[in-house]
Amino acid sequence: MRAAEPAGNRSTLAHQVRYALRHPERVPAHARRAARDAWLRLRYRDHIAYYRAVMASDAARSAEAAVGHNPSREAWTRIGRMQFDYLMGHGLQPQHRMLEIGCGNLRAGRLFIDHLDAGHYYGIDISPHILLAAQETLVSEGLQPKLPYLALADDLTFAFLPDGHFDVVHAHSVFSHSPLHVIEECFAHVGRILAPGGFFDFTFDRTEGEEHQVLREDFYYRTRTLTELAAKHRLHARFMDDWEELPHRQSKMRVTTAPDRARTVGS
């Protein structure tokens, strides 16, 4: 897998034709995905409800497929380890309290749970199907004594979570599937739950051209759009250049509250 680079507009007919000519073997899978999208759009107008149905469909194939469109267990393990190693390199300590948005079936969460003190990991997801798979991961990894919290969420207001509690908030491959109003909802509320010196890391699909979406599942944003949206909610966002050195197709940003720009965890 190559490192992240800005995407062109993948929603255009020209791109789709070029892609089909280069990868004819992938056309049937894309056609099935497009048909599913059309059916689900008729049933669900709200994006969260729509994407919950997408996750249920993917999870029916395999839990790994539902967290990255890739059923390979090797890829699941490798990408989880990449996320964990990155935060370890940025100062994640056992005593830190962590919230993982879109925890999935604990691809990286199992490593965070093992590293953190008992009760210091909190994972949320919009999919009940994938949270059941997360429970299976806890059992298979023998992590029950760590008492992680796993909760179903309908939005990103974090209303049920306490003020100033989390040293690290983490969202991998969440905003890549989110329209801008969902991201803004997160920005409007994440500052409240961050502890002094805490930070919020998220990945996103980056473009330097026209912002666009494909099948309501994949959203592409300019870095400046997200930086300015964070500033609107009194947050400071910066592009994480060192993540670009890793073999991952998405880019990463880090958000802190304005008073914490100079005293971030692990800085």
Automatic annotation (TrEMBL):
Gene3D superfamilies assigned to the protein according to its UniProt record, in alphabetical order: Vaccinia Virus protein VP39 (3.40.50.150)
Transferase in keyword set: yes
GO MF annotation, one: methyltransferase activity
GO biological process: lipid metabolic process; methylation
Stored Pfam families: Methyltransf_12
Domain Methyltransferase type, first and last residues per copy: 99-200
Keyword tags: Lipid metabolism, Methyltransferase, S-adenosyl-L-methionine, Transferase
Assigned protein family: Belongs to the CFA/CMAS family.
Name of the protein this chain belongs to: SAM-dependent methyltransferase
Organism of origin: Streptomyces violarus
